[in-house]
Amino acid sequence: MIIGAPRKRHGCDRSTATGAAELSQIVMSEFLLTPESAPTVEDSGAASPRARSRNMNTPQSGWLDHWPWPERTFMERLSPASRRDLLALGTQRPFQPGEVLSPYGDPANSVYLLRSRDSKVSACAKITGVDGKLLAIRVSGDVIGEIAALEPSSRRSATVTICTAATVHRMPGAEFLRFLDQHPDGWQTLCRTIADRLAWADQRRLDFSDCAVTVRLARLLVEFAESYGRRTTVRPNGNGCDDGSTDAAAWEITIRLNYEELGNLVGARIDAIGLAMREMRDLGLVCLRNRHIVVIDNKGWEKYSVQP
Ligand SMILES: Nc1ncnc2c1ncn2[C@@H]1O[C@@H]2COP(=O)(O)O[C@H]2[C@H]1O
């Protein structure tokens, strides 16, 4: 899933419109292409001998038959047979947070399938544009690098950085295209993924032009909580979240995002994000635990036309 494929549509009062400059910056960062060379995972050679020995072209891939792929991801949408065939392609290797999977402008065209190492914690990758601004997040079950595979003469449209320990299945672009051709649900699933991405971008642009920063952020946080939240309980104490057994139900967003990254996603400056977070904290809607944002189940979200 691409955070966040839109599930709800909301309008906003035009009186809360934000600057067109902010909007155009985000739009530009999605479409500008400037070739640039940087070392890539692909340039560092094929998979290590260890990784090759774990090539999924083995019957061992059967244990992934029951893997809990997150909802609306490429893998979740494929039929079990197609899923098995995709996992049998290419090689896999572990990645650590901070490792760059592919840099912006790179000419390589492998396709990557992201997978969590632990079925209870979703792996994530951050997608950043040429200006280093966060454009999107991909999680376990998503394919990454499909754009260059579709047009082999193009360069990577964004930098992809792993943000939690993950296993990455890598396959040559041509093999991925063959997979799509040979499986009835292949192309359809890829199109649905790209449609989600377009819809999300459209919704963000609507929000950017119509809604106040706090509303944009509230919607994003609730979407993140729905898609990537881990159920928990909290007793908010003003700043942090004290754990408690009988306290408010909440969702801890498993992906760590700083204010700058949140600002990139909703088209706002870091100080505006700080103010919006403070407002939500004061209303008992969010708190912070180990630098993870916790979204608290509270009627107060209705103020922003959302409810977790
Ligand atoms: N706006 C975006 N939203 C989600 N994923 C993206 C976005 N821009 C780029 N990507 C992904 O990042 C990858 C970078 O390499 P590719 O251009 O081959 O394919 C790209 C997509 O898989």
UniProtKB/TrEMBL annotation:
<keyword id="KW-0238">DNA-binding</keyword>
<dbReference type="Pfam" id="PF00027">
    <property type="entry name" value="cNMP_binding"/>
</dbReference>
<dbReference type="GO" id="GO:0006355">
    <property type="term" value="P:regulation of DNA-templated transcription"/>
</dbReference>
<dbReference type="InterPro" id="IPR018490">
    <property type="entry name" value="cNMP-bd_dom_sf"/>
</dbReference>
<protein>
    <submittedName>
        <fullName>Crp/Fnr family transcriptional regulator</fullName>
    </submittedName>
</protein>
<dbReference type="InterPro" id="IPR000595">
    <property type="entry name" value="cNMP-bd_dom"/>
</dbReference>
<dbReference type="Pfam" id="PF13545">
    <property type="entry name" value="HTH_Crp_2"/>
</dbReference>
<dbReference type="GO" id="GO:0003677">
    <property type="term" value="F:DNA binding"/>
</dbReference>
<dbReference type="InterPro" id="IPR014710">
    <property type="entry name" value="RmlC-like_jellyroll"/>
</dbReference>
<dbReference type="InterPro" id="IPR012318">
    <property type="entry name" value="HTH_CRP"/>
</dbReference>
<feature type="region of interest" description="Disordered">
    <location>
        <begin position="37"/>
        <end position="59"/>
    </location>
</feature>
<keyword id="KW-0804">Transcription</keyword>
<feature type="domain" description="Cyclic nucleotide-binding">
    <location>
        <begin position="74"/>
        <end position="180"/>
    </location>
</feature>
<dbReference type="InterPro" id="IPR036390">
    <property type="entry name" value="WH_DNA-bd_sf"/>
</dbReference>
<dbReference type="InterPro" id="IPR036388">
    <property type="entry name" value="WH-like_DNA-bd_sf"/>
</dbReference>
<keyword id="KW-0805">Transcription regulation</keyword>
